[in-house]
Structure formats: structure tokens, C-alpha cells
Give the backbone structure.
Amino acid sequence: MLPALILSLALAADATAVAAVRGLVATHVRARDALTLAGLFGGFQGGMAALGWLAGAGLGRWVARYDHWIAFALLAGLGLRVLWTAWRGDDEGDDGVARDPFALGPLVVMAIATSIDALAAGVTLPLIALWPPATLAMIAGVTFVASLVAVRLGRRLGARFRAGVEVIGGLALIGLAVKILVEHLSA
């Protein structure tokens, strides 16, 4: 089961980093917000791995060919949006309503962006896991817990270092996007 745990931790890394950024830019984190974020991130991570497992090697090769570009575009786009908001100097959208760092739409996009690699990894489950459904549950559970802890820690750091934290958050998302792209292109 050690290979399954290592896979789970590796797949959870990107989601954990994005969860920390969400906590960092939030003015407050309600328990419901943290649980929604962790549930989406863990659910998508486990669900995408399950899709990869079910789809087999054909889909895995296609996903492995493009996953880094998709994740790069989604995360870089979100990072640029956070930077744009920070540089505009307001926390309100065009409609005058305050921005919510835990709005469902952006959270789903982030959950998809950070779980695309799990789709390709799911193809390998029969090779590393004694029982793939247990590994899928572990992937979802590890991502859930890591994301929940990260959003809380991010919030604590954000409260301590409020000035410029949105810029740091936007740059972190763009940095994560570039890291994913570079890792895949150099592999």
C-alpha cells in the first residue's frame, strides 16, 4: 500500500498548493468554505483517477500528452485574474459585489486544473494497487485532508502578512502553472 500512499501524496501536492493560496487571499475562512474546497479538490482528484482507471491506456496516453497544457492554461489564467484584481485595488467585481475566494465556479475550475494529472495516473492503478478502489479512496482522502489543512494555514499566513498577499497568491498560481508545464516538457 506504500506505492498507493506515495501516489496519493504526489497527486495531492498541486491541490494543496492551490488550497493554501485560496486561504492566503481570503479575508476569512468559514468551516463550510474550507470543507467545500477540500471536498471538491479531494472529490475531483479521486474521481479523475477513477476515470483514468476505467478508461484504460488509450485515454491515459492522450491525457498525458495534453494535461500539462490544460493545467497551465487554467492555473495561469486564474493567477492572472488574481493579479489583475490586486492591481486594480478593489475587492469587488464589475457588478459591485464583493469577490468570494470560495465561489463555487472558480473552485471547480481549480479542482479540475489540479486533478488532470490524476486522470493519467489512474491508468496505472492496476499496476501499483492491490485493490484500485482502495487507492482511489486514499487519493481522495489524502487530497481532502491536505487541502483542508492548507487552506487553514494559508489563511493564518494571510492574516499575518495582509499587504500584497493577493499579488503573492496570483504569482503562486502562475508559478505552479509554469512548474507543471516545465516538469512535463522536460520529462
Observations:
- The first helix runs from residue 2 to 25.
